[in-house]
Amino acid sequence: MKYWLMKTEPESYSIDDLAKEKNKTTFWSGVRNYQARNFMRDDMKKGDLVLFYHSNANPPSIVGVAEVVKESYPDFTSWDENDHHYDPKSTEDNPRWFMVDIKLKKKFPEALGRNELTDVKALSGMELMRKGSRLSVQPVTKKEFDAILKLASVTP
């Protein structure tokens, strides 16, 4: 099993939106960064756990845990000219972008603000804590994942 962090802007799609979905499950579409795409396409597997992160929030925060319930498949939003994730270079015959399905496992009782994480030794090497880190999908170590759960006082 691997561990991940996935960022979303809560005004576009929040953990509360995920909680309202049928079976608390959605497809994670719209990723348009090649490194993030490669993580989803090549490395994410069913059963992997995901830290759900609200970026562009005040403060940016980890707000819960989700699980990958369907491995990568072509991101059909890239083919829809009316979708803001449309990419004319991506086609059904030659898809450029991929997505996975995730299911909400647990919303944290309290959001863990990024500023609360800066002094946690176990998180010092975490990609999220690196200055200038903008990847919307990033790997997390088991040690980092466990430290986050401990801070949130939850089990997955």
TrEMBL record:
User: What residue stretches are annotated with the EVE domain?
Assistant: 2-151
Key word Transcription regulation present? no
- Keywords from the UniProt entry: Phosphoprotein
SUPFAM superfamilies associated with the record: PUA domain-like (SSF88697)
Q: Which Pfam families match?
A: EVE
Under the heading InterPro entries, the entry gives: 5hmC_binding, EVE_domain, PUA-like_sf, THYN1-like_EVE
Q: Does the keyword Phosphoprotein apply?
A: yes
Matching entries from PANTHER family are given as:
THYMOCYTE NUCLEAR PROTEIN 1 (PTHR14087)
User: What name does the UniProt record give this protein?
Assistant: EVE domain-containing protein
Q: Which organism is it from?
A: Blastopirellula marina
